[in-house]
Task: structure prediction
Amino acid sequence: MQKPIWKRNLFVLSIAVFIAGIAFSEIMPFLPLYIDTLGHFSHSQLNFWSGIIFSGVYFVSAIVSPWWGKLADKKGRKLMTLRASLGMAIVLGAMGLVQNVWQLLILRMLQGVFSGFVSNANALIATETPKDKSGQALGTMMSFFTAGNLLGPFVGGALASMFSYRITFFITGLLLLIAFFLSFFFVHEEGFKPITEKKLESTHGVIRELQQPKLIFGLLLTTLIIQAANNSINPIVSLYVRQLMHGHGDVVFISGIIAALPGIATFLVASRFGALGDKIGTEKIIVAGFIGATIFFFLTAFVQNTWELGILRFLVGFTDACLFPQVQTMLTKNSPTQVTGRVFSWNQSAMYIGNIIGPLLGSFVSGLSSYSMVFIITAGIVILNLILFKINVVQNLLDNPTKS
Result:
């Protein structure tokens, strides 16, 4: 018996986002080193350029994502996955040809312009999958993307060691080209109805189409704060490891393992938590995630060694699986199909804004106080997110019962 089209799409796009996850993360470990080969920079100049080139893609993506979401609702989500994968294949491949840091910055900005492969793949799956299976489906997509993100740095490091930085960019472009061809030949968008109503051309028209706009915007705020909280830790994890190890031992290796642990946990359970949310209510999974994250972040401030840090970071991965993919599921279940692309693009913009705010916050707090204080402040941010989620989302569901 032939599989339903939504199941085939889920299988193919899970593989595609896995490949994309590798491609997006494999250049990260050596990007600052590559920048250093493009000129003669002082220590402060190298830090400046690394920061700008890392964050540039997020600034641009946050701005352009809603426009691509609008186009997705008019032209189709498959077309947007093809646009993003082909555009980024060319741009990332071209990064291997740059001769100076300005050219690399421009290409990173262009990468932001062509972003949206994963969000549009998620939107396509969200609209094609039966609502009572959407949590499990989006959890599966998250698991595969997370697995790719985890594998990427190892693949990138190995390729850069075997070949060169430039060749690795060419291979990265080829990986995204494979994702393009998988989407082109094997993904079938069934029953797509393009937006033709003028009222849905504008953001105001889309908001009026939403049955519970407060709930939707509450979920977008939840995404922003989740990303800010998670990313506030990123700038200081390796420094915290060094402090715990008192500068002795292989700090880089241990930091790499600890950085990977949350993703491993998320990969293991995201689809299972999604399926559980389909049965008992997705909002309950999210609340449990907030409570767990608050406890684990707070305890992390008081660890005495890297073993304790590693265990708590692994446990944080379970709470991650309760949060971002489940927010996407709630957006799916509470958004009209014809504007799903727009809503998912707003969610992507919120995610990118959180990606920008988080590292700045972590660096600022650690500079003023200590690494431990970053985890305490982050725990406080998670509590704030829980309170806002209860007010904006849970209360709204109680007042206006819908399938969550």
Residues 127 and 333 are 10 Å apart (CA to CA). Residues 43-75 form the longest helix (33 residues). DSSP finds 16 helices and no strands in the chain. The chain has a mean pLDDT of 88.
